[in-house]
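Bench notes, afternoon.
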Amino acid sequence: MADIDERALAEVVTFTSDLIRIDTTNRGGGDCRERPAAEYAAEQLAGAGLEPTLLERSEGRTNVVARIEGTDPSADALLVHGHLDVVPAQADEWSVHPFSGEVRDGVVWGRGAVDMKNMDAMILAVVRAWARLGVRPRRDVVIAFTADEEASAEDGSGFLADRHAGLFEGCTEGISESGAFTFHDGSGREIYPIAAGERGTGWLKLTAHGRAGHGSKVNHENAVTRLAAAITRIGEHEWPLRLTPTVRAALTELAALYGIDADLDDVDGLLTKLGPAAKLVEPAVRNSANPTMLNAGYKVNVIPGEAVAFVDGRYLPGGEDEFRTTLDRLTGPDVDWEFHHREVALQAPLDSPTYARMRAAVEEFAPEGHVVPYCMSGGTDAKQFSRLGTTGYGFAPLKLPEGFDYQALFHGVDERVPVEALHFGVRVLDRFLRTA
């Protein structure tokens, strides 16, 4: 099987840098414009002989979909998707301008370098290399570049799943961001976690009602006080341990790697023994709810009749009922809550041929690495595509050097990706997609 060509290794760097320079900042208010990036991606796909379709729910919020026909028409199709939008960046906090796409000392800098214009670039580089080399995958591969992932996905994957399901006919599985990156454990081991689950999204709006009045008067029906009490209870709540199949497998495989007993009856003790590798598991052993925004009052000497807060809630696969019941109790009788945005939790099988082929592709190019499954603490567009019956995995391969804190760079300052990591990613993605 011929390896990817040298041109693809150069193109993945160029594409990453070019996409970063296209400012697709999504502040969540609908003002993002992904269209220039979508047109760029579509141009590269067209250059590979594909016929990309551009789709919008709202003006400028553009998605791109294209299909590569496989050699086995009886095989299920595979969805490969990446989002085009990025979170905001404050330029004065960065070492380089966040939308420069600068390549310096073998590193590509800028917002989106890891989340997730790097993966978008890998997809484009692989597809174009296939066109040059005459490669066709076994199964149909549907490429989707989406808008609005960093907010509600209503203009992106949600819109595509709800209004254009026919473009994804036959897609039983999909891959996207946040998996197959190097995690260094500090003792020389390289771990490559592949995502096979996501916690559900439960962004909440809390509203406390009370009796408006003068700030100098005693008021036992103060909406601000009621809200403050509720969010304090939520912020201080200790959620119980809940182990999903993916997390059980992760703990078992990590314990075997470190030669320790996988005592799942003492998870906290096991996590302590795993040392730095526990970071791969800790965010996904419980539900969570973190207060993030407050809004109340309009003058210092006026007690308002209403106070509002927002909470970032996440729940494990199978944990939504417990999440709802707990929030009912923690908010109490004086505070109402509702979902500001809700999406399902996901669970993907670890005994599937697709997972085995992802593992094999990583191990071929990183034989010193140890592949383990993990559950994402947050979520991706895989949630929306699951409405189509598509099982999602996180697989955006990167080989990273020691000391490079990949996870900290998601939405962080000085986001960047090494050129060698992109080269590794193209090789691994190419090998997986050829064999998938």
